[in-house]
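Researcher: I'm preparing a figure for a lab meeting and need a structural model of a single chain. I don't have an experimental structure, so a prediction will have to do for now. The sequence is pasted below. Please return the structure as tokens so I can convert it later.
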Amino acid sequence: MRGATIVVLAFVALLIMPAATATSGRSAPECSELDLSQISSFVAVNPGACVVIDLGVRSSQQVLDIDIVVADDAMDVLLFNEATIQPYNLGQSYRTNFVPEASFESALGSFALDWNPPKGNEKRWYYVVDNLARDGDGGMGDQGGSVSKFTIDVTVSDDSYWTELHNTFLLEADEKQNLLEFSLDASTGVTIKSEVLSGTGDLFIQTDNQLSGDLFLSGTNMNSITGSSSLTWSVPENYGNYNLNLMSKASTSPFHFTIEVIFDPPITPVIRDYVNGSTVIGESITLDALDTPNSLNQIESLSWDFDGDGIEDENGMVVSASWPTPGQKMINVTVSSPTGASLMETYMIEVLDIVNPTAVISGEGTRGLNGEWRLLRTADLVLRATTSFDDHGISSTAWSIDGLANSSASQITLSWSQIGTYLVELSVTDPSGNIGTVNTTVTVYDETIPMLETSAIDAITEVNIGEKTQFQAAAVDMWDEQENLRFTWDLDLETDTNNDGDPRNDPDATGSVLTKTFNSKGTYQIALTVYDGSNNTDLHVFSVEAVEAPNQTGLFAIIAIVFFVIIVVAGVVLFGHKGMQRKLALQMLMDRGLSGTEAESRLLSIASSMKLSPFAKAAEMAGLESGGAIKSTEQLQLEAKAAEMAAIYGSDSGVQEDPYAGYKPATVRPSINPAIADEALAAFAEELPQKTQSAAAPVSGQVRSGGVVLPSSKVVTNEPPVAKVEHKLVTDCSSCGKPFSVIMPEGANSVVVACPSCGADQLFER
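Model: Understood. Here is the structure written out token by token.
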């Protein structure tokens, strides 16, 4: 690689090549430009001239193998990158710009070094061969003289796979430098090769505790090295995975050297079984090689042969294995490195015939993300133990629910009326008395979706910048109490942080109360989501505009407005709550057989007769908490009719009346007792004035209840005819609600008449 002898042909080539010529003056002379492909032999450089050699774009992933020869007269050979070469080209001071460890001032002779570009972005690099006194050199280095010549060769070094450090360093006298920090597995081999360019110095390895002094690890020191040197060292057991440092210290100035550090890691598998070397028939065990030394990722692959037949059964650092027969089992583990090296290690496992049965719960139904069963309230779930297994078979089965014995059958059917999570455990026993158990959870849920009450939130449409604003969430659910509801607030509707596909339900904040300060003007969208115990949800998106806070002049007015808004919001919340609870109460009554009209009538009746709190619940509004009977309109009509008949005709207290008396099929007309009709007519006659009527039109009627019927009659008197006095009464039917009227006979104070629309009896009183 290095120190190639200059042959005669090279010198001849030098003679026929045009020499680089100087430019006049000392201010920024222009250099000749070459690339590496143009340098196949010596290049002559005249006094006062310079040559720039383009090395190409290089990265820190490369180590450059550089050979430089300067003959006849000394010159400066300086390394710059694309940025640091600018001061040199402009005739400015450049002494701090070139790479000192890869540069040579007043160079004469052969120089061989390995240089690794610093980490960072790829850059273009240049060597400048300078044979002049140049502005900016500070009067240092070569100042020109006679014609000189050079040659340069740059290649990429072919490093070993385990080469950790390969670079050139430059130290001043007594300077100490940490060349490499590393941590290695015990038994890792460390090879250090160095080649000194100038000066002398020491190389050695220290621990972190030794860095402040001159102590070093035994067997790691290379003292006063010159020329080429090398050292090989193995990491002791007590320094495995310990922080170590490769140090250098200059004895003379400058100490200029190239160093290469190569690691040789151990490739030895270390096996662990977690079962103390034994297992049972059919039982899966875990085997791992995680303790295998691998600090340098020297293990590329690891294969397992569980039965010693030479065929790979598994691969990886962690595997599982089981055996169907007892006995000593030989496991062969083979590791391979990226370099192609490999090693096999043998491991023994004893398999015993004491296998517990394996309990397995199977069934038909819905499973959750964590494997739990999900069951709708009141629905059935069938679970089976038939898939349980053992090497000898299953002799008995036992089920328990939340720790309580349930059944010994191989199949059970479960159902719950209340939502919640229930623990189901299965135990199976084999003929040898070995027991295997397994448990699972059943989550019982309902489908009732909670309903958000948003009036209070929607009422907050404008807030002041910089002021805390409180949003109160409320919701109702048929099965879940308020304290069992969960609320989340999404403050950014553009980003889906929980990655569920919906950017509106991310839990940026939780709880029923959100306190937020808006720090900038604008309109903000917030999404509120409520979850019940079954994870049923309701979502509401609302907007709030943040505005500048009012000045102090109108502070009193603002306070008044805020106070008013609070009152309004409280009213809205109260109204919204009562409305929501009233809807639920109405639904409860309709679920118990009442029509919509009947349910509404009952709610009004309870509201007028009971003092309900502003936050009364639905059951209280419906009158369900008091335990009273709920009656339909039909039942109430029956009771009213019975009372009406008793009021008109009397009743035998000793006889139990039929509450449904008087209700007959529509096609059956009740018969009228003439005696009762005569008595009723006589009663009316006693109240009527005794006036002689001419032939009047007969008054007749038929009442479904069997009430009063006015028979056809003629009354003959000697009194002259007088004008008839009639009274017309109008009302709405208490059953169907349709209006109708009746003309009351003169002298009558009350009468029962059937509704012409539905036939229901109606009592008219003057």
